[in-house]
Specification:
- It is a single chain.
- With about 450 residues, the chain is mostly helical.
- Helices cover about 65% and strands about 5% of the residues.
- Strand 2 and strand 3 form a beta hairpin.
- Helix 7 packs across helix 8.
- The longest helix has about 35 residues.
- It starts with a helix and ends in a 23-residue tail after the last helix.
Length: about 450
């Protein structure tokens, strides 16, 4: 306890770090206030958005901090920007012109950011139109009659687009002048906003059951802590490959001649495989609506509408493993790493520079990705098991899946930045032994 108090005192004594933390908290407060401001032309007392808590819309509402189900000005949240960032990431891999732009350094990154913002506006406008149609179908009476159809559509699209761009701006300000990655923190805050209500609902439901209900609740908390600890190991797990650098003598000075390590992440793909797999698993329930009742297609697809069923979890787990390898292959380039090592006179002991080094790094990455992919798949299906064991749906979502992985990853990233600020000023870090290792890959923009 004394160590924690001393660390907090050290953090607060650093003026620059204190200002960054206060700015981050202030911008988060602005974001949360915007999540409760209803769109113009809507009566919040008549709003009925029960369908927004299920399926793909439930995931969208979770990332938007509940603003989607409240029809708030930040109803679309930061997700259009995330979608645009993912699209631009794929374009930099598939399109040579964008790949060349990415290699141009800071100027290339600025161009890519401009294209990402433009694409965000397009994606947001498209989603805002779809949101208007959804509002009319779910909560038509909530729309004030004095707002005509055309005016309500135009005003809602403009406000939602402006709201997403403002949230994007908040995220960039947190990244530049605050602590942590702004986009990731905004998503994390939206997810954590649901935790107190879910925890309280689970506590009250178990306490009124009798017959050891409170003991069951304590066991659930213990298992949740153990899952978080295992997930921290997954996020921070690395395989260190030794790299030697040859000596170079320039004038009277000697360069190189040192041994370093190349850290290869066990989970280089971050949360993206779970997001991709969930997006695919949301398709079968959509096809159920088009299939005739009682047909074979309806029966098969019905299995995949229940995320606690064995077929759903089996297919979902396989998809997570497949997408882990797919996304790791997209973001991890062993040939580029081998070329950079060769340019810097670095080599792996016993391995020839160039192609042999690339093959060696690629083989190691394939081996360590396999257990990481299986563990990630297990984390992905845990909420389904938790719900099947009579844990309420809201609280069970924190036992794994996208929610917990994002929360753990973002907290580790933020703590790593704070620790770097402390060590840079010759203070002790946040841990007695070792250092906190953040993620090196994950959702674009740090999600």
């Amino acid at each position: 306890m004394k160590k924690i108090v001393e660390t907090i005192r050290n953090i607060w004594s650093i003026e620059d770090l204190r200002k960054r933390i206060l700015l981050t908290l202030g911008l988060i407060l602005v974001y949360r206030i915007g999540c409760f401001i209803t769109l113009p032309g809507i009566d919040p007392n008549k709003l009925e958005m029960g369908g927004a808590s299920k399926g793909l819309l439930g995931l969208f509402d979770m990332f938007a901090g509940g603003a989607f189900s409240r029809a708030a000005i930040f109803g679309l949240g930061i997700m259009p920007y995330i979608s645009a960032s993912i699209a631009m990431q794929l374009l930099t891999i598939a399109v040579p012109q964008f790949a060349k732009m990415q290699k141009e350094g800071e100027s290339g990154r600025r161009k890519i950011n401009q294209y990402t913002r433009l694409l965000t506006v397009i994606v947001t406008a498209f989603q805002a139109n779809a949101y208007v149609l959804y509002l009319r179908s779910q909560s038509g009476p909530a729309i004030l009659p004095e707002f005509g159809t055309f005016f309500f559509t135009i005003s809602t699209v403009v406000v939602l687009t402006a709201g997403t761009l403002f949230v994007m701006w908040l995220g960039e300000k947190i990244t530049d002048k605050g602590v942590g990655n702004g986009t990731s923190i905004i998503i994390e805050i939206g997810i954590l906003a649901r935790l107190p209500h879910a925890l309280w609902f689970e506590f009250t439901s178990k306490s009124t059951q009798g017959g050891g209900g409170l003991l069951k609740f304590l066991i659930e908390i213990v298992f949740l802590v153990l899952i978080i600890m295992a997930l921290v190991l997954l996020v921070q797990g690395t395989r260190k490959v030794p790299v030697n650098y040859a000596k170079r003598i320039v004038g009277n000075k000697q360069y190189g001649g040192v041994r370093q390590f190349l850290p290869l992440k066990v989970n280089a793909a971050g949360v993206m495989p779970i997001i991709f797999a969930q997006a695919i698993m949301f398709l079968p329930p959509m096809f159920v609506g088009f299939a005739k009742s009682g047909s074979a297609a309806s029966g098969i697809m019905g299995y995949f509408s229940d995320y606690t069923s064995a077929p759903y979890n089996a297919v979902y787990g396989v998809l997570v493993v497949v997408f882990t390898y797919f996304y790791t292959a997209l973001i991890f380039n062993p040939t580029q790493m081998a070329d950079e090592m060769k340019r810097n006179n670095g080599f792996i002991p016993g391995i020839k520079p160039g192609k042999s080094t690339a093959e060696y790094i690629g083989a190691i990455m394939d081996r360590i990705t396999l257990p990481g992919a299986f563990f990630l798949a297990l984390i992905g299906i845990l909420p389904g098991f938790a719900y099947a064991l009579s844990i309420n749906q809201a609280f069970s979502s924190f036992f794994g899946g996208t929610s917990l992985l994002i929360i753990v990853g973002v907290i580790l990233d933020t703590l790593q930045q704070i620790e770097s600020q402390l060590l840079m000023r010759h203070y002790d870090g946040l841990m007695k032994t070792g250092r906190i290792a953040g993620r090196t890959a994950g959702v674009p923009s740090g999600m």
